[in-house]
Amino acid sequence: MLERFRKDFPVLENNPGLTYLDSAASTQKPAVVLEKTDRFYRFDYANIHRGIYRLSERATASYEAARKRIAEFIGAAAPESIVYTRNATESLNLIAATMGEQAVQKGDEIVVTVMEHHANFVPWQQLAAKKGAILKVVGLDRETLELDMTALESAVTGKTRFICCTMASNVLGTTPDMAEVTKLAKKSGALTVFDAAQFVPHHKLDISTFDPDFLVLSGHKMLALDGFGILYGKPEHLAAMPPYMTGGDMIENVTIKKTTYAEPPQKFEAGTPFMGGAVSLHAAIDYLENIGFDRIQAHETRLAKLADEKFRALGKVKLYRKPDRIHNGILPFNVEGVHPHDVATILGDMDICVRAGHHCAQPLIRFMDEMAMVRASFYIYNTEEDVDRLIAGVKKTLEVFHK
Questions:
Q1: Does 23 score more than 80 pLDDT?
Q2: Dist CA 124 CA 212 (whole Å)
Q3: Predicted pLDDT of residue 1
Q4: Which domains does the chain possess?
Q5: Which percentage of the chain shows pLDDT scores above 70?
């Protein structure tokens, strides 16, 4: 039972009666993250790497300590394999625009799944169109809504250059078997790109167990500040990739005729970075690991299953995941005869925050034969009272639209 952690979140303390069920979009921030970030700006802020004075040295130490902590958190062998970006979306675009440009030629293949967030779909779609490559989209088992591994195996050939796969669907919560995906990639010589943005807030991540080529995540999905993301890449890939942007802090030497670049990760970190974002993610990781991911997953899964059970008893609510397939806090649903936006509006008027729409996953929504969905997403600060308020809100929606 993690209800006691709710008091750690100022937004929830300052908005009594708020039921926040939109953590899959962005998580609230605990006081410890806000305080450590605030302290950094109050006591240690200066630009990093090049200042030879104490304040800059302290700021640089905090910035690089975060990189080391993030590497340890995901099981990366070296901090140098961690590149700081603005978000997971920028990380994915960086991979497509650098390694993708190098590796993909006319007639090659890129494999994605139908449940990808647009951030892990559109860059590959655009790269394929530009290069004259083939984009293959692998569907789900319609009974279980798990990734269709037989279809994936059929899609991967000797011409496959990338397999791009979410580690947890932001709509369904589905978590594919990463070790199996990687095994298929290695057999064909393809590179793997894993989107862990929705996975890391809920599940312990250890990349040594499946050996990805690339992996991305966003800090704001896991209690850190928005505007800060991570790209993990194998050192040999980062060394071979050209810069994504050029400018300050990513160069080794500039002359009138030629520029040489710094070693990774600095090669991909042009300009003054978001230092506070790094500090915030360091603090968020410490906070989450102190709670324990087994406890986090058990808590949010229990709440999502409780909501599922009460929806089934209520009737007139369409649910997409079987109860035994719910293993994190993501719960999509629709109310019979009511547009998802109308559901979200009525809930919003009751201070119940859910998301409605296509969730930046239009191919998946079409695969599900829907035009939109409502999504409730539970996290460590949610309670059984939040479940009850959600059910009450849907009951009111039914009363309004089924008089």
A1: yes
A2: 18
A3: 63
A4: 3-23+292-401 (3.90.1150.10), 33-289 (3.40.640.10)
A5: 100
Model pLDDT for residues 54-112, shown as the tens digit of each residue: 999 999 999 999 999 999 999 999 999 999 999 999 999 999 999 999 999 999 999 99
Clarify whether 353 is annotated catalytic: no
pLDDT tens sequence across 190-230: 999 999 999 999 999 999 999 999 999 999 999 999 999 99
Catalytic residue among 164, 165, 353, 360: 360
State the pTM of this model.
0.97
34, two tokens:
């806000």
